Amino acid sequence: EIVLTQSPATLSLSPGERATLSCRASQNVSDYLAWYQQKPAQAPRLLIYDASNRATGIPARFNGSGSGTDFTLTISSLEPEDFAVYYCQQRNHWPVTWTFGQGTKVEIK
Amino acid sequence: QVHLVQSGAEVKKPGASVTVSCKASGYTFTDSFIHWVRQAPGQGLEWVGRINPNSGGTYYGQKFQGRVTMTRDTSISTAYMELSRMRSDDTAVYYCATQQHNGDHFDDWGPGTLVTISS
């Protein structure tokens, strides 16, 4: 079963700074990787799917890249509403399961 | 637009069962899979399982095999997740989420249902 490892666990940045989040898969997942944002007491929200495609309504400052085993979510210039926890996710084809990384918290410095 | 409404919070004793419902609207219910994902207090996201509302076919996470049952009622566009023999570490918020057939990600999420296991 594929394991997703996110780094860093916590990212302390100021508004306007660039955030770079990493997600590494234990095996090749091609480009089948998604990113979600979760704010306190809210459900997760889809940001990026298939590694680099922004979901409907997601601002252009959110960019996903990578393929194979190494993936990156970049927030080009942090807005106050971007401070949240971010998860990556992929699907295992056998056994058929869906897996999340452990999350990266982006906090205000 | 897609709207998922979940049943209310539950408090159960250890060993009991709970059923959480997820009523969908804004799309054709049988056109998307429904997943269940849970989140224990202060923890990350954990996939529980998936149901195909069209066929009723399911996939369950290995950790939940034998304890979870997912069903659906297409006449009212509602999916259900039953978890039995619950333990204190099953205390979590349980989310339903949709997956379109042409993707492997979760497009829309319900607001979550808090299930608390306490003696």
Please state the structural category of chain A: mainly beta
The residue ranges of chain A in which pLDDT falls below 50 over 5 or more consecutive positions are none
Radius of gyration of chain A: 13 Å
Query: How much strand content do the residues of chain A show?
Result: over 45%
**Radius of gyration of chain B over all CA atoms, rounded:** 13 Å
Overall mean confidence score, pLDDT of chain B: 97
Total strands of chain A: 11
Main beta sheet of chain B, described? 6 strands, mixed
Distance between the termini of chain A: 36 Å
Order of helices and strands of chain B: EEEEEEEEEE
Low-confidence stretches of chain B: none
- Most extensive interface, residues per chain? A-B, 24 and 22 residues
Shape of chain A: globular
* Shape, per Cα inertia axes of chain B: globular
Strand order of the largest sheet of chain B: 2-10-9-4-5-6
Proportion of helical residues of chain B: under 10%
